[in-house]
Amino acid sequence: MNEEAQNLQSLVLCTSRDKLQTWISSLNQIPVSYLCCTLQRMEFFVLVMLPACAAGLQDLSGKMFIFPQQTNKAHVRLTASKQDFSSVTVCHRSFADLTREHALFSLSTSSISNDFMIQWDDKNKEIEPHIRDQKVEYGGQDFKLNMWHSVCTTWDSSSGLVQVWIDGQPSVRKYIISGSSISGSTIIILGQEQDSHGGGFDINQSFVGMMSDVHMWDYVLSSCEIQKYVDELNFTPGNVLNWKALDFQIVDRVLIEEKQSSCH
To answer: Which of 157, 192, 178, 162 is nearest to 85 (CA)?
Structure first.
C-alpha cells in the first residue's frame, strides 16, 4: 500500500465524514478507479476491525455518539482539561431502551474505580451517583425508555452533598462524602463502567443507545445554568469537558451521527 493509501486508511478510520470528503476531493493525483477500490477496502476494514481512533479536538454540536450493540469493548474515552476536583457538575443527554442497569458516565482514578460514576438501575428505577466509591440512590424516577433524557449531577466536597437533575427536575440533596477531592490520573469513559482503572468492563453494564451534549465543570452549576442546559439555551459550556470542543478517542464500534430531530 503506497503512502497516499496509508494516509487514506488512517483518515477513514479516525475522522469525521465531512473532513474525509474534503480530504478526498484534494487527492487529484490518485486515479479515480484506484481511489474507489481503496475506499471499498477501507469500508470493509472499518466494519470488521474498528480499532481505537484518536479523534482529537472536535466540535460535536448537533451530533451524538451511537453505541449500537451490547459489548464489553466499545466505548469512548474522554480527555479532561484537568485532573483534580473538589467540586463537580456533569451533564449529558441519553436515549436508550435498556431494561437493565447501565453506566451513563464513568470516571476512575488510579486509586478508585468509581470516583465519579452515574448509573441507572432499571430494576429498582433508581439513578445512582457513585462518588469516591460511595453511593446514594434516587428512586421513583420517571426515566422512560425510547426518549431523550437530560441528566445533571452535582457534588461539592466541602459539604459532601450530591444532587441529581433529571429533565430539569431536581432531586433532594443527599450526603455522600466530604473532605476528600477527586485527584490523580483520571480516565473518563462513556459506554462502559470501569471496574478497574480504564478497564474491567462488564457487558451487562454497558450502555446501548445514543448519547450527546456531554459537559463537565469543576464547580457546582447553579440551578439556572442547569435549566438552560436542559432547555438547550445559551449556557456556559463545561470547562473540564466541552461537547463543542471535545477531545476523545473511540474504541471499537461507536459511531458519530447527526442528532435526530422531530419534523413539524
So the answer is: 157
Q: Among candidates 176, 168, 191, which has minimal Cα distance to 256?
A: 191
pLDDT band for position 54 (cuts 50, 70, 90): low
Of residues 182, 36, 190, the one with CA closest to residue 24: 36
Fold (topology level) of 63-258? Jelly Rolls (2.60.120)
Contact assessment for residue 217 and residue 238, using Cβ atoms and an 8 Å cutoff: yes
The answer to whether the beta carbons of residues 211 and 220 sit under 8 Å apart is no
Residues 164 and 209: their CA atoms lie apart, in Å, by 21
Render pLDDT for 189-218 as a digit per residue (tens, 0 to 9).
999 999 999 999 999 999 999 999 999 999
Render pLDDT for 112-153 as a digit per residue (tens, 0 to 9): 999 999 999 888 889 999 999 999 999 887 788 999 999 999
β-pairing, 169-170 vs 161-166, is antiparallel
Question: Looking at the chain, how many residues does it have?
Answer: 264
Res. 38: pLDDT tops 70:
no
Spans of all domains in the chain: 63-258
The beta strand positions in the chain, using DSSP E, are 53-58, 63-67, 75-78, 87-96, 102-108, 116-121, 126-131, 134-135, 149-156, 161-166, 169-170, 174-175, 187-190, 209-217, 246-251, 255-258
The dihedral through the CA atoms of 101, 102, 106, 111 has a sign that is positive
pLDDT for residue 67? 98
Q: Provide the 8-state DSSP code for 248.
A: E
